[in-house]
Amino acid sequence: MLFWRDLAGHERIKESLFKARQLGRISHAYLFSGPPGVGKKTAGLAWARALLCKKGDTDACGFCYDCQLFERGAHPDLKIIRSQGASIKIAQLRELQDSAALTSFGGGRQVYLIEQAEKMTNAAANCFLKILEEPPAGVVFILVADDGMAMLSTVMSRCQHYRFNPLPEDDVLQVLGRTCGGNNDQARVAARMSMGCPGRALLMLNGSDQREEMLQLLMSLTGQRRYLPVDGLGLDGREDLDGFINCTRLFFRDALVWKISGSTELLINIDYQEAIAELAGAYEEQDLVDILLTLEKSARRLAGNANQRLLIDSLVLQITGSEREV
């Protein structure tokens, strides 16, 4: 598990929290927000590790009893809250409230990391707001969210908010080299496609067959130029749809670049030049722009828990041209 000092990129955030820990100016609540896969959960865990270590100065020492517990994933003063189904429910926050009122096991801080914090129901968010209004001593909350602005504004205002922006390609490659070894052409393609998000790049490397499947699905839609029933797409659940949107967005982006410039230098999917040329030839320039705008909206709607079936329907209509022919 990473130390805070080993995080790739995000230097301004790292330096700010290094100084905060060194000076003992620890907030009771932090909000780490940014696009999926950018590394904010990894950063949250690394910051939790630094906060739970009683020996280190600006970061965890890596050797003390707390660090050993953390490394084994067994530190009793770190608790991770995840959504139950589609949301984080008030019962989970009430349980957190009771737990935070107790003394820590190790005599130091307690840290609660809340994943996808924007998924709190209104009741849960208001319960959490009451906790933040009178925060228990020695307790630190780390909220991780794809969209911090989707959270209750009064909760957000009581957190130190750090926005994790997409990383440069070289920083993504650094993460890939450390995580799965090597810095080959496949890793470079994944880093370029990830749009600055190492988590996405890792998914692409671990599921290279999936990108091929997504491209075949996309080309089948393009080739039909007619509406295809949603059930025939083989997209099963949010993760498949998210992968389809991300891959499709990058392929259509490349098709637009090819359409305008005829150059391969700016392509992201550099290993699929023939498919991109075919895609570019199947659409007018304005159609490509319209599809990209639809994909951007779809990505935001998916992050906001939109109805997935209706989302797929809208995408298929746009890609096949059915919507434009009506």
From TrEMBL:
UniProt keyword annotation of Cytoplasm present: no
Swiss-Prot/TrEMBL GO biological process terms: DNA-templated DNA replication
Keywords of this entry: DNA replication, DNA-directed DNA polymerase, Nucleotidyltransferase, Transferase
Coiled coil regions in record: none
Domain DNA polymerase III delta subunit C-terminal intervals: 239-319
Reaction catalyzed: DNA(n) + a 2'-deoxyribonucleoside 5'-triphosphate = DNA(n+1) + diphosphate
Enzyme Commission (EC) number: 2.7.7.7
Keyword Nucleotidyltransferase: yes
Pfam families found in the cross-reference section: DNA_pol3_delta2 (PF13177), DNApol3-delta_C (PF09115)
GO molecular function, one term: 3'-5' exonuclease activity
PANTHER family: DNA POLYMERASE III SUBUNIT DELTA (PTHR11669:SF8), REPLICATION FACTOR C / DNA POLYMERASE III GAMMA-TAU SUBUNIT (PTHR11669)
Name recorded for this polypeptide: DNA polymerase III subunit delta'
Natural source organism: Desulfotruncus arcticus DSM 17038
